[in-house]
Design a protein that fits this description.
The structure holds two protein chains of two kinds. Chain A is an alpha/beta fold. Chain A contains twelve helices and nine strands. Chain A starts with a strand and ends with a helix. In chain B, a hairpin with a 5-residue loop joins β2 and β3. The chains are: A alpha/beta, B alpha+beta.
Amino acid sequence: MKIAIVYGAICGGCDVAIVNWGEKLIDIAKKYDIVYWNAAVDSKLEDLEKIDHINIGIFMGSIRTDLHVKLAKLLRSKSDIIVAYGACASYGGVPGLATLTRKEKLIKDLASTITTEKIEEEDIPDPAKIPELLKTNYALIQIIDPDIIIPGCPPSSVSNEELAKFLLEYQEGTRLKEKIVFGEENSLCSICPRRPEDLHKIKMPGIYRLYEVKLDENKCFLEQGIICMGPATRAACKAPCIKNNHPCVGCMGPAPGVDDVGLKYISSVASLVMVDKEKEILEEGLAKQLDKIVDPIGVFYKYTLSNSLIAKLAKKSNKRDEKK
Amino acid sequence: MSKRYILIDPVTRVEGEARVVIVVNGKNSIDEIYYEILSTRGFESFCIGRAVEELPRITSTICGVCSWAHHVASGKTLDKLFGREPPITAKKIRELAYYMQIIDSHLLHFGVMALPDLVFPETDPLTRNIIGLLKVEPKIASTILGTRRYIKQIEKIFGGKPIHAAFMIPGGVTRSLKEEDVEKLKEQVGELKKLIIDILDFFKNRIVKSELYQSLLNDESYMLKTYYMGLIGSGRELTFYDGKLKIIDSEGREIAVFNVDDYTEYIAEYMSNWSYSKFPYLRKLGWHGFDEKYILRVGPLARINVVDKVPTEIGGNEYKEMIESLGGKPIHNTMAYHWARIIEIVYSIERMEEMLDDPDLLSKDTVNLEGEPRYEGMGVIEAPRGVLIHHYKSDEHFIATHVNIITPTTFNNAAINTELKKVARKHLDLTNGDRVEYKVLNKLEMSIRAYDPCNSCAAHVIDLSTSDEFKVLIIEKETGRKRLVKYKVV
């Protein structure tokens, strides 16, 4: 059988997560030919184009250029099973933070960094033209329909075990009855080693930014007043960040039943902060505390902005502007 | 005969998306070669407006192979922005953890990306990889895959996650190490060291002594006489986590030693419309295109060239041996990058072993929250591929207002482009019309791979003027017609 690993806009972390299978890679290579994987295998784009049929197509990265769209569609058309591997393919990932930035503004920012001194347009022949940036960043799932979604930045070792098992057990020609999302049908809080005093009545004493306090190594982050994305995030890891005394940043994407991570989060934070205070203090203090969330986009949508409700609304309003 | 084009699309066994376009003229000689980075995600743009304390987690995802390099460089930049000096324990834990990044990335590159070229470069391209290597050289291939287990476990102890760790915070690290952590680390580092020594032996006996590698080392086309830049420690020794930047010229003369705070005096960047990566150059020399006289290189070979010593037992001896056998410093042969990488792997594991006996590691004092904010910070680190600089400015609410990141692969971008021209002119036989053999094109890719470029890191962008109005080159898909469209930034 054949496996192809194809990229969108990547960082390479997903590649390393696959290499971290270590010796297990040997078992997988016994069952499958790895026909395309730029980081490790020497087949070129024209080789990929020539292949008629691929059993498992793994796509890593977000969709940022016209080339990525072409590759995603090419892989879908040849593959029985498509795996959206990692946060970028699943939800747009960190590059999705550019979703609300116009392409022209993005290029302008990159061209005006402090050391960029000399900018020149060279006369290049057509075949040397580079792929064009799309208007914005997309998740793979906005372009094609995958069969398996493996969230995570990068996917956790639990998910990788599960993927290896799937690949080793997979029988040629089998199609999935429904889309599978790796991870548990629960939020990260359900498996978190830090137990709040009362899981249903978490009290945030206020809101503190990460640089303001010494983090307690055992207490629930919310009870320390630190934004932790655990309640809105799928349990598809074993809480390694929290075990290392850093709040969850939400790389596993929305918890089951949550459509939009940010909206879910904002509504829950407002009901957790200073709930133990008197009504008057609460009303006045709450606004002040919520002001300390200086960058809700970067904190709540760090991995999921591309496919969020906000992105959809922004798209609509851009279209209206363009019509005008 | 009209112009024709030869493509290596994509360049493989490198990280990220890149290709080579060779323009051949009617007289069968090469007009131009482009090493192109094919995508950008725009970090320097979308990091603006972010709460700065989020940047170590965000910028880590610039690169998944050297995620720790970005994560740690970002944290160091925040130390300065917040004006906080990390406690000695935090510094030591950072330095210790960071050696693992060097080993991780170098071993991955050596085993998965480079080794097939050094063992069987002319084999069928579809088996010229780590899987093919398992059949030909099962022992070394499984040793290399075997290292992943230890690397992953060690990185988990420090960062929770092995890739895109949760480790750095302004003024320190997230948590203290427990005695059981250090015990586990000692055990894992000990096991990993055994494998590394096996890999060193393999490299010395099978690669260095091979005719193939020797011929590559003696091939003038894989050689650039350039400037070099790297960090040096307080004793001018090899260092990765911290130090001063040193630049030497192609004769080995010291041109400058400076703090990263002054980097803009020394470094500027050129930007063009055919790669999503910029081209840094030495500001005082100016940009002269792809002329090796003016080019700057970074990375393992540059580090070996700028430091005075490699202060561990095995690493130190290997360093001396390498210099002796290559006829002294500076070493200009790009294929020696591989050798330098092996020495750094050995040095790093020896340093880890030494540091694990340090009682300071166990102190609970792992973060300093005090300091006078500067609202601006520059941080530097030796990433596996070379000097990495982060530079942030913020407003009084610690929201990022300016972000500049220069990655090692960006630093080496001009060198890669320059060297490709030399290699292609020497090795490409263009008289047979359009058919160029894969194995010949692989000679070009071997030059690129020696730099271990991380094209995800390099991807920045292109194409415009600095005024409010700027132009974007549009090439119409159907007709291939080019036109310049002017945009106004609002």
